[in-house]
Specification:
With about 100 residues, the protein is an alpha+beta fold. The chain has a single domain (about 5-95), classed as RelE-like (YaeB-like fold, 2-Layer Sandwich). It has helices at about 10-25, 25-45, 90-95; strands at about 5, 55, 60, 70-75, 80-85. Strand 4 (about 70-75) and strand 5 form a beta hairpin. Helix 1 (about 10-25) packs antiparallel against helix 2. It is globular and about 40 Å long.
Length: about 100
Amino acid sequence: MNRPVVLRSAARQDLKEARGWYETIRRELGMELHAEVREVIGKVRAKSEMYHGVFGDVRRACTRRFPYAVYYAVKPERIVILAVLHGHRDPAEARRRR
């Protein structure tokens, strides 16, 4: 089922900060990270149940190239993106955002 995807403002901020950090290395890297996260979100939208739950109703989908994960919750009417976190960040941060 293709539910609409809603990015919480905190997840948008996560992505903005990560993109900014990568752009300090090389401008194109920030755009590439952004594109890869969008691709992961597209996969989540198409097959939200494909990814494993990490706690409660929160699931995690990892990017391939960058060490980031998209944390989301599947609701009956939508998919809510809670966080876009670096692999070294505490995943409990996503749980706090539920």
